[in-house]
Protein backbone atom coordinates (compact mmCIF):
# COMPACT_ATOMS: atom_id res chain seq x y z
CA UNK A 1 0.00 0.00 0.00
CA UNK A 2 1.06 3.62 -0.41
CA UNK A 3 3.36 4.79 2.39
CA UNK A 4 2.02 6.91 5.25
CA UNK A 5 3.53 8.87 8.12
CA UNK A 6 2.27 10.41 11.36
CA UNK A 7 3.65 11.61 14.69
CA UNK A 8 3.17 9.07 17.46
CA UNK A 9 3.82 11.61 20.20
CA UNK A 10 2.06 14.93 20.75
CA UNK A 11 3.43 18.05 19.07
CA UNK A 12 4.49 19.71 22.32
CA UNK A 13 7.97 20.46 23.70
CA UNK A 14 9.39 17.20 25.06
CA UNK A 15 12.72 15.34 25.14
CA UNK A 16 11.83 12.85 22.40
CA UNK A 17 9.34 12.86 19.56
CA UNK A 18 8.49 9.80 17.48
CA UNK A 19 7.45 9.60 13.82
CA UNK A 20 6.00 6.37 12.45
CA UNK A 21 5.97 5.35 8.77
CA UNK A 22 4.35 2.34 7.12
CA UNK A 23 4.21 1.09 3.54
CA UNK A 24 5.63 -1.28 0.99
CA UNK A 25 9.35 -1.08 0.12
CA UNK A 26 9.72 1.80 2.56
CA UNK A 27 13.48 2.35 2.95
CA UNK A 28 14.21 3.35 -0.69
CA UNK A 29 11.50 6.02 -0.37
CA UNK A 30 12.99 7.62 2.75
CA UNK A 31 16.68 6.93 2.12
CA UNK A 32 17.27 10.30 0.33
CA UNK A 33 17.06 11.90 3.79
CA UNK A 34 19.98 9.70 4.88
CA UNK A 35 22.35 9.80 1.88
CA UNK A 36 25.05 7.17 1.85
CA UNK A 37 23.51 5.02 4.57
CA UNK A 38 22.45 1.45 3.79
CA UNK A 39 19.16 0.07 4.99
CA UNK A 40 19.43 -0.32 8.80
CA UNK A 41 19.47 -3.79 10.35
CA UNK A 42 15.97 -4.96 11.29
CA UNK A 43 14.78 -4.24 14.82
CA UNK A 44 18.05 -2.57 15.89
CA UNK A 45 18.30 1.11 16.84
CA UNK A 46 20.57 2.94 14.38
CA UNK A 47 21.98 6.41 15.05
CA UNK A 48 21.53 8.58 11.95
CA UNK A 49 21.39 12.22 10.90
CA UNK A 50 18.79 13.33 8.35
CA UNK A 51 20.28 15.95 6.06
CA UNK A 52 19.09 18.65 3.68
CA UNK A 53 21.55 19.95 1.07
CA UNK A 54 24.39 18.41 3.07
CA UNK A 55 23.32 20.12 6.31
CA UNK A 56 22.60 17.78 9.28
CA UNK A 57 19.13 18.55 10.64
CA UNK A 58 19.03 16.41 13.77
CA UNK A 59 20.47 13.28 15.36
CA UNK A 60 17.86 10.52 15.45
CA UNK A 61 17.45 6.87 16.34
CA UNK A 62 15.87 4.93 13.49
CA UNK A 63 14.18 1.54 13.91
CA UNK A 64 13.32 -0.57 10.88
CA UNK A 65 10.72 -3.38 11.06
CA UNK A 66 10.53 -5.18 7.71
CA UNK A 67 7.34 -6.77 6.43
CA UNK A 68 5.63 -8.95 7.53
CA UNK A 69 7.03 -8.84 11.07
CA UNK A 70 5.80 -5.38 12.03
CA UNK A 71 2.90 -3.50 13.58
CA UNK A 72 1.01 -3.17 10.30
CA UNK A 73 2.38 -6.18 8.40
CA UNK A 74 4.09 -3.72 6.01
CA UNK A 75 7.54 -2.20 6.31
CA UNK A 76 7.48 0.09 9.34
CA UNK A 77 10.06 2.73 10.29
CA UNK A 78 10.11 4.68 13.53
CA UNK A 79 12.22 7.82 13.84
CA UNK A 80 13.00 8.96 17.38
CA UNK A 81 14.07 12.58 17.16
CA UNK A 82 14.42 15.51 19.53
CA UNK A 83 10.96 16.53 20.63
CA UNK A 84 10.83 20.18 19.66
CA UNK A 85 7.49 20.46 17.82
CA UNK A 86 9.01 22.67 15.09
CA UNK A 87 11.69 20.04 14.49
CA UNK A 88 9.05 17.31 14.21
CA UNK A 89 6.94 19.37 11.81
CA UNK A 90 9.95 20.09 9.59
CA UNK A 91 10.97 16.43 9.48
CA UNK A 92 7.37 15.53 8.62
CA UNK A 93 7.40 18.00 5.73
CA UNK A 94 10.64 16.51 4.37
CA UNK A 95 9.25 12.99 4.63
CA UNK A 96 6.08 14.05 2.79
CA UNK A 97 8.26 15.49 0.01
CA UNK A 98 9.50 11.93 -0.56
CA UNK A 99 5.97 10.93 -1.60
CA UNK A 100 4.86 9.65 1.80
CA UNK A 101 1.45 11.06 2.65
CA UNK A 102 0.09 11.94 6.13
CA UNK A 103 -1.82 9.08 7.74
CA UNK A 104 -5.52 9.37 8.45
CA UNK A 105 -6.70 8.91 12.06
CA UNK A 106 -6.45 5.23 12.99
CA UNK A 107 -4.92 4.22 9.65
CA UNK A 108 -2.00 2.33 11.18
CA UNK A 109 -4.37 0.19 13.22
CA UNK A 110 -6.66 -0.26 10.22
CA UNK A 111 -3.76 -1.59 8.16
CA UNK A 112 -2.84 -3.89 11.05
CA UNK A 113 -6.38 -5.24 10.95
CA UNK A 114 -6.48 -5.69 7.18
CA UNK A 115 -3.11 -7.46 7.22
CA UNK A 116 -4.14 -9.87 9.97
CA UNK A 117 -1.98 -8.31 12.70
CA UNK A 118 -4.88 -7.04 14.78
CA UNK A 119 -8.40 -8.36 15.27
CA UNK A 120 -11.38 -6.05 15.46
CA UNK A 121 -11.83 -6.89 19.13
CA UNK A 122 -8.16 -6.20 19.89
CA UNK A 123 -8.44 -2.87 18.04
CA UNK A 124 -11.31 -1.78 20.27
CA UNK A 125 -9.52 -3.07 23.38
CA UNK A 126 -6.49 -1.02 22.31
CA UNK A 127 -8.62 2.10 21.97
CA UNK A 128 -10.07 1.54 25.45
CA UNK A 129 -6.56 1.02 26.83
CA UNK A 130 -5.36 4.32 25.38
CA UNK A 131 -8.34 6.30 26.69
CA UNK A 132 -8.79 4.56 30.08
CA UNK A 133 -9.19 7.16 32.88
CA UNK A 134 -7.91 4.79 35.59
CA UNK A 135 -5.25 2.13 35.87
CA UNK A 136 -7.79 -0.54 36.77
CA UNK A 137 -9.73 0.16 33.57
CA UNK A 138 -6.46 0.14 31.65
CA UNK A 139 -5.73 -3.32 33.08
CA UNK A 140 -9.23 -4.47 32.16
CA UNK A 141 -8.72 -3.38 28.55
CA UNK A 142 -5.19 -4.78 28.50
CA UNK A 143 -6.48 -8.17 29.62
CA UNK A 144 -8.85 -8.23 26.65
CA UNK A 145 -6.04 -7.04 24.37
CA UNK A 146 -3.31 -9.42 25.52
CA UNK A 147 -5.57 -12.41 26.29
CA UNK A 148 -8.31 -12.36 23.61
CA UNK A 149 -9.73 -15.65 24.84
CA UNK A 150 -10.79 -13.84 28.03
CA UNK A 151 -12.82 -11.21 26.16
CA UNK A 152 -16.55 -11.56 27.01
CA UNK A 153 -17.51 -12.01 23.35
CA UNK A 154 -15.01 -14.81 22.88
CA UNK A 155 -16.27 -16.51 26.02
CA UNK A 156 -19.79 -16.11 24.65
CA UNK A 157 -18.70 -17.55 21.31
CA UNK A 158 -17.39 -20.73 22.94
CA UNK A 159 -20.71 -21.31 24.71
CA UNK A 160 -22.65 -20.51 21.55
CA UNK A 161 -20.65 -22.97 19.43
CA UNK A 162 -21.52 -25.64 21.99
CA UNK A 163 -25.19 -24.74 21.63
CA UNK A 164 -25.10 -24.85 17.82
CA UNK A 165 -23.26 -28.15 17.86
CA UNK A 166 -25.99 -29.57 20.11
CA UNK A 167 -28.69 -28.34 17.72
CA UNK A 168 -27.00 -29.86 14.68
CA UNK A 169 -26.34 -33.09 16.52
CA UNK A 170 -30.04 -33.42 17.30
CA UNK A 171 -30.86 -32.39 13.72
CA UNK A 172 -28.68 -35.22 12.38
CA UNK A 173 -30.48 -37.68 14.64
CA UNK A 174 -34.15 -36.66 14.41
CA UNK A 175 -35.23 -39.86 16.13
CA UNK A 176 -33.88 -38.32 19.34
CA UNK A 177 -36.23 -35.33 19.03
CA UNK A 178 -39.60 -35.26 20.73
CA UNK A 179 -42.39 -32.69 20.58
CA UNK A 180 -42.51 -32.79 24.38
CA UNK A 181 -40.54 -29.76 25.47
CA UNK A 182 -39.46 -31.52 28.66
CA UNK A 183 -37.74 -34.30 26.70
CA UNK A 184 -34.01 -34.71 27.11
CA UNK A 185 -32.80 -32.84 23.94
CA UNK A 186 -35.07 -29.87 24.62
CA UNK A 187 -33.92 -29.74 28.21
CA UNK A 188 -30.27 -29.59 27.12
CA UNK A 189 -30.88 -26.92 24.49
CA UNK A 190 -33.00 -24.73 26.76
CA UNK A 191 -30.42 -24.98 29.51
CA UNK A 192 -27.69 -23.82 27.13
CA UNK A 193 -29.85 -20.97 25.82
CA UNK A 194 -30.65 -19.82 29.36
CA UNK A 195 -26.96 -19.82 30.23
CA UNK A 196 -26.18 -17.65 27.21
CA UNK A 197 -29.07 -15.30 28.01
CA UNK A 198 -27.84 -14.84 31.58
CA UNK A 199 -24.27 -14.20 30.41
CA UNK A 200 -25.39 -11.72 27.74
CA UNK A 201 -27.66 -9.76 30.09
CA UNK A 202 -24.87 -9.56 32.67
CA UNK A 203 -22.34 -8.22 30.16
CA UNK A 204 -24.79 -5.65 28.80
CA UNK A 205 -25.60 -4.57 32.37
CA UNK A 206 -21.90 -4.16 33.22
CA UNK A 207 -21.36 -2.13 30.07
CA UNK A 208 -24.27 0.21 30.79
CA UNK A 209 -23.10 0.63 34.37
CA UNK A 210 -19.75 1.83 33.06
CA UNK A 211 -21.30 4.14 30.48
CA UNK A 212 -21.22 7.65 31.87
CA UNK A 213 -21.40 11.11 30.39
CA UNK A 214 -17.89 11.65 31.81
CA UNK A 215 -15.47 8.75 32.13
CA UNK A 216 -13.69 10.21 35.17
CA UNK A 217 -14.93 11.30 38.59
CA UNK A 218 -16.62 14.56 37.63
CA UNK A 219 -17.37 17.78 39.50
CA UNK A 220 -19.43 20.74 38.32
CA UNK A 221 -18.93 24.23 39.71
CA UNK A 222 -22.29 26.02 39.58
CA UNK A 223 -23.90 28.99 41.21
CA UNK A 224 -25.09 32.54 40.54
CA UNK A 225 -23.08 34.89 38.31
CA UNK A 226 -20.04 36.58 39.80
CA UNK A 227 -19.77 34.16 42.71
CA UNK A 228 -16.16 33.42 41.77
CA UNK A 229 -16.66 30.00 40.19
CA UNK A 230 -14.07 30.60 37.49
CA UNK A 231 -11.50 31.86 39.99
CA UNK A 232 -12.11 28.79 42.12
CA UNK A 233 -11.87 26.61 39.00
CA UNK A 234 -8.45 28.10 38.23
CA UNK A 235 -7.26 27.67 41.82
CA UNK A 236 -8.23 24.00 41.93
CA UNK A 237 -6.47 23.34 38.62
CA UNK A 238 -3.55 25.60 39.57
CA UNK A 239 -3.70 27.24 36.14
CA UNK A 240 -5.55 30.09 34.46
CA UNK A 241 -7.92 27.97 32.36
CA UNK A 242 -10.97 30.23 32.75
CA UNK A 243 -11.30 33.93 32.00
CA UNK A 244 -12.03 35.92 35.12
CA UNK A 245 -13.91 39.23 35.04
CA UNK A 246 -15.73 41.40 37.59
CA UNK A 247 -18.67 41.49 35.18
CA UNK A 248 -21.38 38.82 35.61
CA UNK A 249 -21.91 36.28 32.83
CA UNK A 250 -18.30 35.94 31.63
CA UNK A 251 -18.52 32.14 31.38
CA UNK A 252 -20.91 31.10 28.61
CA UNK A 253 -20.05 27.46 27.91
CA UNK A 254 -18.77 24.56 30.00
CA UNK A 255 -15.04 24.73 30.65
CA UNK A 256 -13.22 21.49 31.37
CA UNK A 257 -10.03 20.79 33.32
CA UNK A 258 -8.40 17.69 34.78
CA UNK A 259 -6.28 16.83 37.78
CA UNK A 260 -4.32 13.60 37.34
CA UNK A 261 -4.27 11.85 40.71
CA UNK A 262 -2.54 8.53 41.50
CA UNK A 263 -5.84 6.63 41.54
CA UNK A 264 -7.59 8.33 38.59
CA UNK A 265 -8.46 11.64 36.94
CA UNK A 266 -10.56 14.31 38.62
CA UNK A 267 -12.61 16.12 35.97
CA UNK A 268 -13.69 19.65 36.92
CA UNK A 269 -16.28 21.63 34.96
CA UNK A 270 -16.95 25.35 35.23
CA UNK A 271 -20.42 26.48 34.15
CA UNK A 272 -22.34 29.61 33.28
CA UNK A 273 -23.86 31.46 36.23
CA UNK A 274 -27.50 30.64 36.99
CA UNK A 275 -29.76 33.65 36.38
CA UNK A 276 -32.52 34.85 34.08
CA UNK A 277 -30.93 36.23 30.93
CA UNK A 278 -32.14 37.63 27.61
CA UNK A 279 -28.75 36.79 26.06
CA UNK A 280 -29.30 33.77 23.80
CA UNK A 281 -25.74 32.43 24.14
CA UNK A 282 -25.67 32.87 27.90
CA UNK A 283 -29.08 31.20 28.13
CA UNK A 284 -27.77 28.21 26.19
CA UNK A 285 -24.84 27.97 28.58
CA UNK A 286 -27.16 28.00 31.59
CA UNK A 287 -29.33 25.28 30.02
CA UNK A 288 -26.25 23.14 29.36
CA UNK A 289 -25.07 23.63 32.95
CA UNK A 290 -28.44 22.59 34.33
CA UNK A 291 -28.45 19.44 32.18
CA UNK A 292 -24.89 18.62 33.22
CA UNK A 293 -25.81 18.63 36.92
CA UNK A 294 -27.59 15.28 36.48
CA UNK A 295 -24.56 13.81 34.68
CA UNK A 296 -21.76 14.60 37.13
CA UNK A 297 -20.80 12.83 40.34
CA UNK A 298 -20.61 15.93 42.51
CA UNK A 299 -22.08 19.44 42.38
CA UNK A 300 -20.26 22.31 44.06
CA UNK A 301 -22.77 25.13 44.55
CA UNK A 302 -20.78 28.37 44.93
CA UNK A 303 -22.13 31.44 46.76
CA UNK A 304 -20.49 34.75 47.64
CA UNK A 305 -21.38 38.01 49.45
CA UNK A 306 -22.60 39.52 46.15
CA UNK A 307 -24.89 36.62 45.36
CA UNK A 308 -25.99 34.54 48.37
CA UNK A 309 -28.39 32.22 46.53
CA UNK A 310 -29.51 28.71 47.37
CA UNK A 311 -29.76 25.98 44.73
CA UNK A 312 -32.92 26.97 42.77
CA UNK A 313 -34.06 23.41 42.07
CA UNK A 314 -33.87 19.90 43.48
CA UNK A 315 -31.23 17.46 42.25
CA UNK A 316 -30.30 13.89 43.10
CA UNK A 317 -26.63 14.67 42.49
CA UNK A 318 -24.54 14.84 45.66
CA UNK A 319 -24.07 18.54 46.46
CA UNK A 320 -21.60 20.48 48.58
CA UNK A 321 -22.11 24.20 49.22
CA UNK A 322 -19.23 26.68 49.15
CA UNK A 323 -19.09 30.21 50.46
CA UNK A 324 -16.50 31.96 48.28
CA UNK A 325 -14.88 35.40 48.71
CA UNK A 326 -14.70 34.91 52.46
CA UNK A 327 -12.04 37.63 52.46
CA UNK A 328 -14.85 40.12 51.71
CA UNK A 329 -17.46 38.84 54.15
CA UNK A 330 -18.22 35.74 56.20
CA UNK A 331 -21.36 33.74 55.41
CA UNK A 332 -24.59 34.93 57.04
CA UNK A 333 -25.53 33.16 60.30
CA UNK A 334 -28.58 31.60 58.61
CA UNK A 335 -26.42 29.64 56.16
CA UNK A 336 -24.21 26.69 56.92
CA UNK A 337 -21.95 26.08 53.92
CA UNK A 338 -19.82 22.97 53.74
CA UNK A 339 -16.74 25.03 52.93
CA UNK A 340 -15.74 28.65 53.49
CA UNK A 341 -13.05 29.68 51.02
CA UNK A 342 -11.46 32.59 49.25
CA UNK A 343 -10.20 31.94 45.76
CA UNK A 344 -8.26 35.19 45.94
CA UNK A 345 -6.37 34.53 49.20
CA UNK A 346 -6.55 30.69 49.01
CA UNK A 347 -8.23 30.53 52.41
CA UNK A 348 -9.93 27.15 52.95
CA UNK A 349 -8.68 25.73 49.63
CA UNK A 350 -6.52 23.08 51.26
CA UNK A 351 -9.50 21.62 53.10
CA UNK A 352 -11.64 21.71 49.94
CA UNK A 353 -8.95 20.03 47.83
CA UNK A 354 -8.42 17.38 50.51
CA UNK A 355 -12.13 16.53 50.45
CA UNK A 356 -12.26 16.43 46.65
CA UNK A 357 -9.21 14.16 46.58
CA UNK A 358 -10.74 11.86 49.18
CA UNK A 359 -14.04 11.65 47.27
CA UNK A 360 -12.17 10.91 44.05
CA UNK A 361 -10.18 8.15 45.72
CA UNK A 362 -13.35 6.59 47.18
CA UNK A 363 -15.00 6.70 43.77
CA UNK A 364 -12.19 4.80 42.08
CA UNK A 365 -11.65 2.39 44.95
CA UNK A 366 -15.17 1.06 44.25
CA UNK A 367 -14.25 0.50 40.60
CA UNK A 368 -11.11 -1.58 40.93
CA UNK A 369 -12.25 -4.59 38.92
CA UNK A 370 -9.79 -5.51 36.19
CA UNK A 371 -12.05 -8.15 34.64
CA UNK A 372 -12.47 -7.82 30.86
CA UNK A 373 -15.54 -5.88 29.73
CA UNK A 374 -17.18 -4.98 26.44
CA UNK A 375 -15.07 -2.31 24.78
CA UNK A 376 -17.56 -0.27 22.77
CA UNK A 377 -21.14 0.69 22.08
CA UNK A 378 -20.87 -1.29 18.85
CA UNK A 379 -20.14 -4.48 20.78
CA UNK A 380 -22.98 -3.80 23.21
CA UNK A 381 -25.46 -3.31 20.35
CA UNK A 382 -24.30 -6.51 18.67
CA UNK A 383 -24.75 -8.41 21.93
CA UNK A 384 -28.22 -6.90 22.48
CA UNK A 385 -29.30 -8.05 19.02
CA UNK A 386 -27.78 -11.46 19.69
CA UNK A 387 -29.81 -11.68 22.90
CA UNK A 388 -33.01 -11.02 20.94
CA UNK A 389 -32.15 -13.94 18.66
CA UNK A 390 -31.67 -16.15 21.71
CA UNK A 391 -35.08 -15.08 23.04
CA UNK A 392 -36.73 -15.93 19.71
CA UNK A 393 -34.97 -19.29 19.66
CA UNK A 394 -36.23 -20.00 23.19
CA UNK A 395 -39.80 -19.14 22.22
CA UNK A 396 -39.61 -21.32 19.11
CA UNK A 397 -38.15 -24.24 21.03
CA UNK A 398 -40.86 -23.98 23.69
CA UNK A 399 -43.52 -24.08 20.97
CA UNK A 400 -41.94 -27.16 19.42
CA UNK A 401 -40.78 -25.48 16.19
CA UNK A 402 -37.22 -26.78 16.16
CA UNK A 403 -36.35 -25.50 12.67
CA UNK A 404 -37.49 -21.97 13.54
CA UNK A 405 -35.38 -22.05 16.69
CA UNK A 406 -32.33 -23.08 14.66
CA UNK A 407 -33.03 -20.31 12.13
CA UNK A 408 -33.05 -17.74 14.96
CA UNK A 409 -29.76 -19.08 16.25
CA UNK A 410 -28.21 -18.87 12.77
CA UNK A 411 -29.25 -15.23 12.68
CA UNK A 412 -27.62 -14.82 16.10
CA UNK A 413 -24.46 -16.44 14.75
CA UNK A 414 -24.13 -13.77 12.07
CA UNK A 415 -24.71 -11.05 14.65
CA UNK A 416 -22.06 -12.52 16.92
CA UNK A 417 -19.62 -12.82 14.02
CA UNK A 418 -20.16 -9.12 13.33
CA UNK A 419 -19.42 -8.45 16.99
CA UNK A 420 -16.13 -10.36 17.10
CA UNK A 421 -15.02 -9.16 13.69
CA UNK A 422 -15.32 -12.30 11.59
CA UNK A 423 -17.88 -10.61 9.36
CA UNK A 424 -17.93 -6.84 9.06
CA UNK A 425 -18.41 -3.94 6.64
CA UNK A 426 -16.38 -0.86 5.69
CA UNK A 427 -18.83 1.24 7.69
CA UNK A 428 -17.98 -0.71 10.85
CA UNK A 429 -14.26 -0.45 10.12
CA UNK A 430 -14.45 3.31 9.66
CA UNK A 431 -16.50 3.73 12.84
CA UNK A 432 -14.04 1.67 14.91
CA UNK A 433 -10.78 3.11 13.65
CA UNK A 434 -11.77 6.76 13.16
CA UNK A 435 -11.77 7.18 16.96
CA UNK A 436 -8.01 6.62 17.10
CA UNK A 437 -5.57 9.47 17.10
CA UNK A 438 -2.88 9.89 14.45
CA UNK A 439 0.00 7.45 14.63
CA UNK A 440 -2.03 4.74 16.38
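Sequence proposed for the structure above (440 residues):
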Amino acid sequence: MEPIVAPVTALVPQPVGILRLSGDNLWPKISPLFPGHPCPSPRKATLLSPTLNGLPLDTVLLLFFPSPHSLTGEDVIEIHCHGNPQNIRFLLSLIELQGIRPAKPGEFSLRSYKNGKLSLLKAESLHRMISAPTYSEFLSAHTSFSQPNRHPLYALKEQFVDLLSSFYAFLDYPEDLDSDRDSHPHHILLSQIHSLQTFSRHQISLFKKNQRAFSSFSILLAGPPNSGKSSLFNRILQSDRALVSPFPGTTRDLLEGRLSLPFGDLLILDSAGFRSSDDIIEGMGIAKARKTISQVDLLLWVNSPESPTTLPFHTKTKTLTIWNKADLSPPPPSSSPDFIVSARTRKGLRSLLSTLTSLTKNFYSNQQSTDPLLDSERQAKALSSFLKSLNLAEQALNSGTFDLALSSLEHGRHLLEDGIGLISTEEIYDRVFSRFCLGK
